[in-house]
Write a structure and sequence with these properties.
Layout lengths: L1 E5 L2 E6 L5 E3 L16 E9 L4 E8 L11 E7 L12 H14 L2 E5 L11 H14 L9 H6 E11 L1 H15 L6 E7 L17 H14 L26 E9 L5 H13 L5 E7 L6 H4 L4 H19 L1
Parallel strand pairs: 6-7, 6-8, 8-9, 9-10, 10-11
Antiparallel strand pairs: 1-2, 2-3, 4-5, 5-7
Helix pairs in contact: 2-4
């Protein structure tokens, strides 16, 4: 067996027979139609072919909404380096429940196939399939009653953290190319997982040991990448890819000063601003925080502040 351990990835073991053993991040929280923290949840299959689900989160009070009244719809992609975690993990279940309770939205947290069993681009393919399935409800005649009856497709947001923020970017690019309708209102990228072989600026990570660790994780997730970490899936900032067609009206990029991906996140925001994209960009930085601090220390002062920023971003877009 071959153990992979880095400071950016919980340990996994790959056995000689190809079996992958995840040594952490395997706990699951069940759904409940009895309110937990004022939120009800259920899992719905969006891809029978791959047995993939989306976990739906709904404010309990919204089960009694007046006829015709609808909620903003949040589509969320979890982090975990394309390898770990799921919408059913305690950290993500609890985080989405709090977002939904605070913002009064309907959320769909998307499960996607994980590497190394299913290398990149499986996660992107599944994420787009989930978006297509969710948008099949926009006329009110989809498979899932909560989405049919309660989702306002004029107020759709796509969000994610780390690898999930990277996925969110690529989903917005594809939405623009394929002219997804109705148009996505806003995209939230928290500590986006973008990277490159060379530092993006003089303040980016210079330590070769850390840079090689990130490259090792990407190689595990995407062994078929010809250019390694300069693969356009990962190197969005420096790959020459055109991001002016981002298919949404507003973007919120959140970065952390002690996050190895922080400078890449700021460079992404700068590239978007100069790209000719016709939307509104907001950037927030927590200088003293590390990668995904808001997920792992959800009750800290800065995590609550970031939650407020996230919720206000969705609310201000609604009021336009």
């Amino acid at each position: 067996m071959e153990p992979h351990r880095t400071s950016h990835l919980p340990p996994i073991r790959i056995h000689k027979d190809g079996r992958v053993e995840r040594l952490s991040g395997n706990d699951v929280i069940p759904t409940s139609l009895d309110p937990q923290n004022d939120v009800v949840t259920k899992d719905v299959v969006y891809s029978p072919e791959h047995n993939l689900s989306a976990r739906l989160f709904l404010p309990h009070k919204s089960t009694k909404l007046a006829a015709g009244k609808k909620l903003p719809l949040l589509i969320y992609f979890h982090g975990g380096a394309y390898i770990m975690e799921s919408p059913f993990s305690p950290v993500y279940h609890n985080y989405l429940a709090e977002v939904v309770k605070t913002s009064n939205c309907l959320a769909a947290s998307v499960q996607y196939r994980r590497a190394p069993e299913h290398p990149i681009p499986a996660a992107y393919e599944d994420s787009w399939s989930a978006i297509q399935w969710i948008f099949s409800h926009s006329d009110g005649f989809g498979e899932e009653v909560w989405i049919n009856e309660l989702a306002d497709f004029g107020r759709v947001f796509v969000a994610g953290d780390s690898a999930g923020a990277n996925i969110s970017h690529h989903m917005a690019i594809r939405a623009g190319k394929e002219k997804l309708h109705p148009r996505i209102k806003g995209v939230v990228m928290v500590h986006p997982g973008f990277w490159s072989k060379d530092p993006v600026d003089e303040k980016d990570v210079q330590d070769e040991r850390i840079r090689s660790q990130v490259a090792e994780v990407w190689e595990l997730a995407s062994p078929n990448s010809v250019d390694g970490v300069d693969d356009p899936w990962l190197n969005v900032v420096g790959s020459g890819s055109d991001i002016s067609g981002l298919g949404c009206e507003r973007v919120l990029v959140a970065v952390a000063g002690k996050d190895v991906f922080g400078r890449q996140g700021l460079a992404y925001a700068a590239k978007l601003e100069k790209s000719g994209w016709r939307g509104e960009l907001e950037v927030v930085e927590d200088e003293e925080e590390g990668h995904c601090f808001h997920i792992h220390n959800a009750n800290s002062e800065n995590a609550l502040k970031l939650m407020k920023t996230f919720v206000e971003f969705m609310s201000s877009t609604v009021e336009e």
